Every structure is written in structure tokens, then in C-alpha cells.
Amino acid sequence: MPLLPSLSALARRRLALYLTTLLLITGQPLLAQEAAPPAPQPPALAEITLPTSLPAASVIAPGEPGQYVLEFNRSPVVGNRLRFSGIYDEQRLHFTRPRNWEAKSVKVLLRYRHSAALYATRSNLTVLINGTSIGSLPLNQPMGEIGDAVLEVPTDLLQDDNELVLAALQNNSPTCTQDPFDPSLWTEVLPDSKLVFDYAPQAVTPDFSQFPYPLFDTLSLETNQVAYLQPVTLNSPWLTATARLQTYLGRTAQYRSLDTRLVKTLTDLKAEERLIVLGTPAQQPGLADLTLPFALEDGEFVDDTGKPLPAESGLLMWAAAADDRSPVLVITGNGETGVAKALQYLVQPQEQQIATGHGVVVNQAGEVPSPSPRQWPGYLPEENDFLLTDLTSPIRQPLGEMTVRGSHAPAMEIAFKALPDDRLLRGSKMRLSYSYGPQVNPLTSLVDVELDGVSLKGERLTEVKGASHRTLEVDLPGDRVTPTSKLQVNFRLDPRERRSCSRVTDQQLWGTIHSDTSFSLQRTAVTSLPDLDLLKTGYPFTAPQDLATTAVVMPDAPTGTDMAVLLELAERLGRLSQADSVQLAVYQPGDLPEEVRTDRHLVAIGVQSQFPIPELLAADGFALRGRSTRQWGDTQVQPLPDGEGLMKSVISPWNPQRVVLALSGRDDRGLAQITDLLHHDPLFYQIEGDTVLVSAQVPNPDPYTSADYRLATLRQSPQVQLATTTPYPWLWQVTRHNWLLIVPATVVLALLLYGAAQAYLRRSAGE
């Protein structure tokens, strides 16, 4: 039935023009329209008949009781010593307790020395575990001697995450210490001090509700070790699934260490390793040697009725190997489609929450939309105007209000990491909202803001009674904001009255920065490529963060060294990115689609003779030619032997907006150096230029010893400056900074449209 049956044609035409005008102005129709049909839902898949009596879950047998020594120098804050200065000082160390450990006894073994000027009866060192004191030591050692002490830790104080606090009270007089900054007030705890655990491992029953444990224990004090079982053949789907899972493990590890390798058989597995078996039963014959929740008959998994499971369904299962000492994660299915589906479900953390038990059938894995290329968790937001709460802490939690107390309060740090392609312009500002308490000395107290240790602006705290929600506007120098930048807010609080000959109790002095602290940035997105210095952040391969625009190209027959480089690359990209999914793809030369070659950033892996994109090694800049020739510019040399690894970045010959990264070497020995370069942080964070050559100088190199590795940086390829974002429409650029004009402009536009419509209607009526 028509909406307006009684109106004339002219009236209906006028009304239609009027409604169209309102729609253009407001963006909303005046009359309700018919409800849009609901979005189509994916077809429901038939449920699989599960076994009525599943075999008992595989139990990981406990190891032998043992002792673990955790030395203080494992913490980066210790270095060569842990130093205490002034009348009162304290240091904090954090340690974890592995999930399968039952602590029988824990001891703190301290080795320390201190200034001979300390007065013994008024100086001591106190040790606290999770806020509970476990003992105090008098600082009474003769000059030059090292003190030793053993303190017992009650095991009921231990938690998953623990904090060890060392607090030093130091005085150099029997009555009072005149100068709290006297350099003779010092104590040092030596780096060979340690925590000693006597523990008994416990049996573990794997359950997918706890994933990724026990495949990866985020509380482990030792390096997590993971092995992949090599399939019968290495093809592109298996390589893609392996790289995506390794990327997920890299994200889970974050700063923790992880060792990964390939094994050919189950007997090659070490007792302390966890195993991953990925692939169909045809790809992984070793599945027949494992006790699994689902029956395997004639090379296919079957349900309770003996019917083969659909090839589109994936299976996730836990098993045990190496005399039931090692957990085994099985990712399989009767077809490669099911394997890919099970793997994709596993690397999407939001979907893992619905899993439980030791066997899971994945009928459907939801698709997670790819994030914006400039949406990087932990970095500056995409928006130019944002608040303090839009930034995150080092543990990836939103920042809120922060308060410090005392006259020597530490700086409050704010991670202010610019995106790798960010260029901040003149006019970028920070509006610091802060408060401070009463009893401060207005002549000597102030608040100041620093960027990477360089002061930007400060102002005096002039109110004796304190102040609330003051604002300090700070100009941000765009040329100094980098992907590693930090803002520091310092409250230099000085009390109005000082009492001599007593420890100053200044906790009544406080300063707070509020969550409504705001930032307004003027910036553009421009970058110059190729540049390996950007690879330290993962850029451009981690834009977007799910790696949807990155593809890896492997040789037709990957070797063990090729696979080691692929695993280290995927792990490194995982550590440098954070997203709800992984879309990294791996291809062999014969499977590489032309659209992928053109539209994605590429990483090519392989020795010179098997390199999948050989023209890259002979491109401009540093080149490997023939069997032993190196060329750089007009210079050619023939080294013997050539054992260096090569990392080279060039603009893609198929798309000037994309980058190709070559990871190669003359032979496996040289390619193994690239594995070290990607695995060890001290080496990886030295790369720069467009080409890096790396080689080990000793048989068993130590990445923390600069002389054990040689890194040569070359730069010859011309850089290309690329704009990495689409410019805003003209209308948006005008209105975003003049939003007060929107209402009057809308009224004027409505009047103009109304006048035009009336003129058109009169002309139509006259005709």
C-alpha cells in the first residue's frame, strides 16, 4: 500500500524534495523505513558424534625433585651491583614461581658490602618478600670485607608473581646524620647473590582452558623449549600454519626466552621440551604412536560411530611423549582445511576462552577483521587528540592517575612511542593536569616534564596550601619523538621546614597527575624506505599488526636451516606485534600468487643457490654473484670462505609501495648467522642501513660480548619517501578544526537547498 495515497503528484514531488533535503543535511531519513533484513548467518554445521567414553587425559609425569638457583644478575636492574645511597633507600626485584613447582624450601643468599663510615647500631639491611619481612642484617662489616647471610623464606609467602624488596637504613653518626646526600652513605648487594629453590615438580593434566600452558609457561624461570615434528613433506599450507603458531608463541613470550627447533621423530624429543604435531595423519605418521582422544583408523580420525570426521573440521588434542614427561599439542584433521581451521582458532586469543578439556573439535573458526595499519597497541593512538587513559603501561594496561610521595620521589614515566612512520609537526602539545599537597616550599618546589631525559618545561609550585587540577601546557618537539620515547613527569618537592639530626619524614608531600591529562598532536605519516632501522619495530611488515600484508617466500625444498630462520622470523614478528589474529602467509615459489607478489611486503629466505627470488641478491647495492663473488658498487671481491649472513632490504620491483627483505647467505653456515641475528636481542637491535652482514668470530659466540660477532652495515640503495596514509577529505579538514561553524553552516545550506528546490518546483509548475 502506498505511504501517501491522497496527495497529488506535485505535492508528493515537493515532499520528496523536502525529505531529500533533510536527509542531505541531517544524514537521517524523516520517515521510518521498512526494517532491513537481518544479516545472513553462516550455515550451522552438523555436530559430530563424539565418543561416549573418551580415554583419560594424558597426564604429564612429574620430574625428579631438584634445586634451582636464581642469581640476582638475571635481572637487568642489577648489572654489576645493586647500590643503595642516602639515609634510606630500597630496591625491588621480581621473580616468578613455575606453575608445576611445589616449593619445599626457599632461601635468600645475600653477599653485600658497605661503607666503613656506617654506624653499625643505626644501619641495617632489611629483606622483605611480598611485603613481609624475613630478616634484617646489621651493616657492621670491617672495611673492604664482604658479608654473607642466608635468610629462610616461608613457602606460604610465595605466589605466582613475587616481589623481593631490599631496604637499607644508613647512618654515619651515633646521634644524627647531618647530610642525607653524604657520599659515604652507601651499601652494595653483589650480583652473585641468589635465590635457591628446593622444589618438587607436580604432575600436569593438560586442558585447553589453560592454553598456552603447558606448551608455554609464562611463569617459568627457565627457557621454554618447543619442538615441531617435521612432516613427510613441507608444503605451503603447513609452512603457513607453523609460522602463524610460532608468531602466536612470540606474542605470548613477549620478553621471555624461547628456544624452538624441528625434530624428525618422537624419539628425538628431549624430556624438557614440549612437542607440536601439526598436520593431517598422512603428513604426520607419528600420530599413530600417540594416545589420542579420537580414534585413528585407516589414516583417518573417526567419530563414535566409526564414520570419518569431515575434512572441514579441525582437531585439537593433548597427548604425552618422552615417557610421559613432555606434553604434546596435536593440531590435525582429516584435511588441510580442517588443520588450517584448528590452527586459526588457536591463534585467536578471544576465541580460546570457550575451549576446555583435552580434545576440541573446531567446526567453525570466526574471522577476525584486520586492524587499521596505524592501530598499534602500546604506541600513540591513531587519533590526534587523546587522553592519558588512551596510553598504556609496559604491561599493556591503560594508564590512570598516578601519585608520588616524598622529597626524592622518582619520575612518573609515560610510554610515548610514536608510530614508525609518524612525523610530529610544530604545534603538538601536552596539557598536564596535576595536583599537589600542602606544606611544600614554594621557593624550591616545582614540576617539570622531560622527553627522554631532556627537560621541556616546568613551573614552580607556588601554593603553600596545595593546589588541585592545575594545567601545564608543554610544547612537544616532534623531531625528538621516536618509537622508543618516554615522557617523565617529575615533582621536585621540598618541605617548608626541615628538621636536622633526624630522618626526614616527608610522606606528607605528594604530587598527582590526573587522567584528564590530554595530548593534541599535529602529525603526518611519511616514511623513507628501505631502512632496516625501522625493522626494530617490525615496520613495515607489522602494519597492520596481524601481518595481513606480509608474506614469506621459502625455497622449493626447505632445509633445516631455512626452517630455523623462518621460525625465528615468525617469533620476532610476534614479539613486535599485538593483535587478535595472525594472518602471516608462507609460500613456495611455485605457489606464490601474482597478487600476493604485487600487493604484499615479502620476506625471502634461502641460501644463494636455492634463493626463491634470485634477482634480489643481484640487485643494486650489495650483491652476491657467481659462486664466490661479492660486489658493492664498482668493487668486487672473492672471500674464502664466505660464512657471513646477509640481511638486505629493497623496494619491491613489483610495487614501489612495498618492501622485500632478503635473508640469505652463501651457504648454510652463513644463513645460520641470520638465525642468531633474529634470535638475540643484542644483535637484532644493532641493525640499520639497508644491508647488514653478520658473522660469528669465535666457535661458541656470546651475543652479549661485542667481540664475538661482527656486524657490518651498508647503505647504498636510494631511499624512497612514502606517504603511508590517505589524506582526509577537504570538507573534513575544514570542519575538524572549526566545529563551531557546523550549526550555522548547516542552516545556511538548508536555506540554499530549500530556495533551489522552490525555484525548481515553480519552474516545473510553469511548464
What is the structure about, briefly put?
By secondary structure, the chain is α+β, with helices and mostly antiparallel strands. The protein contains 10 helices and 41 strands. It has a 7-stranded mixed beta sheet. Strands 1, 2, 4, 7, 9 and 10 form a 6-stranded antiparallel beta sheet that branches. Strands 12-11-13-17-16-18 form a 6-stranded mixed beta sheet.
Write the layout of secondary structure elements.
Elements: H1 9-26, E1 66-71, E2 82-85, E3 88-96, E4 101-114, E5 124-129, E6 132-138, E7 147-153, E8 161-169, E9 186-189, E10 194-201, E11 224-229, H2 236-253, E12 258-263, E13 274-278, E14 295-297, E15 300-302, E16 314-321, E17 326-333, H3 336-346, H4 349-352, E18 359-362, E19 385-387, E20 402-405, E21 412-415, E22 422-424, E23 429-436, E24 446-451, E25 454-460, E26 467-475, E27 486-492, E28 510-513, E29 518-520, E30 523-529, E31 550-553, H5 560-575, E32 585-587, H6 594-599, E33 601-605, E34 622-625, E35 629-632, E36 635-637, E37 645-651, E38 659-665, H7 668-679, H8 681-684, E39 691-696, E40 709-714, E41 720-723, H9 730-736, H10 742-766
Parallel strand pairs: 11-12, 11-13, 13-17, 31-32, 31-33, 33-38
Antiparallel strand pairs: 1-10, 2-9, 3-8, 4-7, 4-9, 4-10, 5-6, 5-8, 14-15, 16-17, 16-18, 19-29, 20-28, 21-27, 22-30, 23-26, 23-28, 23-29, 24-25, 24-27, 30-41, 34-35, 35-36, 37-38, 37-39, 39-40
Helix pairs in contact: 1-10, 2-3, 2-5, 5-7
